[in-house]
Design brief:
six-stranded parallel sheet, four-stranded mixed sheet, 9 helices, alpha/beta, 21% strand, 276 residues, TIM Barrel
């Protein structure tokens, strides 16, 4: 089956994907939705509307249609071609900020195809896009390699809590040493912030409860100890519980306790603004 690449004239992301396909010697049929491919795209969109994401700025291009699959955006297209989708959980499609590749994360202790992941970032970086990546402290060796190679332009450090709660929060354990190693990479990223997630912890008696203000403060203290400074951008963001948890969402006033305790160690601690 032919690979159809839907592009838009003047789209830099489309040019990057076309260059990648050419570099990999992969044949495809380009359909410019602002030119000769306009009618073909209308037919494609009617048939695949549910699989095509629309953002506030409209549909993101390029879109690759191959073997019945619809791949949208640079990351998912490169992931499918190079790893047969093994990296899909770590290279997600999202509405891009102009000039940036986002939607990347290394939320896993054992990321598959690590060298290919770096290869994708190198290629994108070489084409002039800036890269935003999220890490939660797992896989510190990979994060160290990414920052040492200066592949990241913005690092979002999603701090789940103190190290001893990572297994309860993520299903994967993480030592304090490894979490500290990841935190040490913050200073090597040109732009970064720490987002402390006030997540839901399964207790020893199997009941569920939010991360406590004291546990949040322990996490903030670890950041200070690991990095030697109290002045990191530090945002406290509550997780919205699902109905099955039986928990009520935290109110803004509940979060004041978290901010007060975290500011002992992270003086710039702020509460995330509520989404409108």
């Amino acid at each position: 089956m032919e690979k159809h690449l839907y592009t838009a004239k003047g789209c830099s992301r489309c040019s990057i994907v076309k260059a990648f396909l050419a570099d990999q010697k992969i044949e495809f049929v380009e359909k410019d939705i602002k030119g000769e491919g306009k009618e073909d795209f209308k037919v494609f969109y009617r048939q695949n509307r549910k699989q095509v994401r629309r953002g506030t700025n409209g549909i993101e291009f390029p879109i690759l249609h191959a073997n019945g699959a619809v791949l949208q955006g640079i990351g998912p297209i490169l992931s499918q071609i190079l790893t047969n989708g093994k990296l899909d959980p770590f290279i997600q499609s999202r509405e891009p900020e102009p000039g940036w590749l986002g939607g990347l994360n290394i939320f896993a202790s054992k990321l598959p195809e690590q060298e290919t992941f770096m290869e994708i970032l190198r290629f994108v970086k070489s084409k002039g896009l800036r890269i935003e990546l999220a890490s939660d402290g797992r896989n510190p060796a990979l994060l160290t390699n990414l920052t040492d190679e200066k592949l990241l332009d913005r690092l979002i450090f999603v701090l789940r809590g103190p190290a001893d709660l990572y297994h309860a929060l993520t299903g994967e354990g993480l030592s304090e040493t490894k979490l500290a190693q990841s935190l040490s990479c913050l200073s090597r990223s040109p732009d970064y912030k720490i987002v402390l997630l006030v997540g839901i912890v399964k207790q020893d008696d199997r009941t569920l409860a939010f991360l406590t203000p004291e546990e949040a403060a322990d996490a903030a203290k670890l950041v200070e100890t690991a990095t030697g400074t109290k002045t990191h951008p530090f945002v406290i963001q509550p997780v919205k519980p699902d109905k099955e948890s039986g928990l009520k969402p935290l109110e803004q006033t509940d979060l004041f306790k978290y901010r007060t305790r975290c500011r002992r160690f992270m003086v710039k601690s702020e509460i995330a603004l509520e989404e409108s």
